[in-house]
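Folding follows sequence. Below is one example:
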Amino acid sequence: MAAIGQPATVARSRRPFGVRLYLTLGFAAVASIAAGFSYLLVTGSSDEAAGEQAANITLGRAARLANRVSAHPSANATAQIDLVKDQGFSAWVFDARHHLLTPRLSRGVELGEVPGQRELATAATRGSRTVQQLPGVVSVASVPLFRNGRLAGAVLARADQPEEIERTIDALRGDRLAAAAIAVAIAVVIGFLIATAITTRVKRLAGSAARITEGRLDEPLEGTGGRDEITELGMALETMRIALRETFGALSSERDRLSAIFDALDDAVMVVGRQAEVRFSNLAAEPLIGPDGKAIVALVPWLRRAAERGAAEHDGLRVGDRVYAVGIRDLPAEDAVLAVVRDRTTALRRELAEREFVSNAAHELRNPIAGISGAIEVLRAGAKDDPNARDHFLARLSEDVERVTRLTDSLLTLARIEAVVKETREALDVGITIEEAAQAVAPPHGIDVKLDVGANVAARGDPVLLRQVLIGLLTNAFKNTPPPGVVTLRARRGRDSEVLIEVSDTGTGIAAEEVGRVFERFYRGSGSLKQEGFGLGLSIAKRMVDVMEGEMGVESNVGTGSTFWVRLPVGEMAATPVA
């Protein structure tokens, strides 16, 4: 039976970048973004704090300068400014009426370059302290100037960010960058480890799923411990594996059962595709499949007709010396057709043989019945009154009745053999059976009978049937062996665990063209007009041998005699117990 299918083999492709890399890059990206935002946030806060600190320093310097100017009213304000040694520090002094008391250029900085200087000076002359952080690293402050407790003017100061703060900010910036890089590196390592743990479990599940796809359903899945989503996926796959194993087990049993049923069928069953390729077949379909795996040419037109019309049937498709009955149905869902083909050759031959048998039997019965009928009519016509005629026709009636009796006995014997359904095989002693058969038939005058039987030759069969076969062969040999002649019975152990029994004669022999027909029913050979009988003896004997699961044949040469042989399976005789 052709295989229905095999588990598919999954081709596993190796990807240049796996989930592990993607997860690692994802963790790295998240860490980089978080570190960047943190860096920007810390940097902004640090710069803002540094700017406020620088502004407060500028405001303090301006306040100290205002105190010195207030404490020395007679001193030149420019001289007081020059006393301040801080680098990058510029200052201007105003009176209460907003008049500038110092040069506009202070330490290389023009008063007009200071943004909002007028508003700052005005606010200070009104008694307010003000400080502003300008873009970059510059801060501007204004403080009121008091003398003798009275508001006497204002001091406006501009200062660059101190170098100490700059160095501190630069150092912190480098530390922040290093910390961000370390954080990203740690995140990458942690992400790689997490990704490895995840992908390892996923790969394990993928391997288990691949084994399921390949049909290896007896291996339990790995990695089903835990309480996360991957574990739930593994448990779902394990449940699916168990269900598939049970399902495939049931399908396999059903397939084997169907396979045994299909293979036991005498009819050929095939599923054939549109291109005549055979997709499924049983053992009986082998003669209908070519070497290329396609249906034989004689079936193709009927397959196409069934595909076009939905069905096709033919009771007498000839393929060589065989005759088939074909029934084909279309299977649209399978894009194929289902063909059931029965070999009718043996049945047709049997029908022909039965018709010939009935015809021959009727013919053989017609002659003696016609003789009986004719003799009765003659006797009725007056022959019964003539003693000589009466005795003659009564003798003919007796002969015809005996002939009909012998024919019916032969037919009944053949019918009984054909009806045998129970095997009658047992171990039998061939030597004893041969001796009984030789004693049952007396040889004609001038014919010698010789026995040549090996020691301890046993066969499996029915002793009654075998004795009847040998009696028939001896009778046939005596009829066809003119005196002086010899008929020999032989029995020996043959090859291939068989027993060979032969009945040889020195008679007339059989022509080569008739050897193949001697076992046909009612066949009596070319010399039938000179011989008695109905041509059923050898046919009955061969059928008896067939019932014993043996073989029967003949070898003959015209003028030298014939040898009829019987082959039976070897039997083992039970040991005789010693008293």
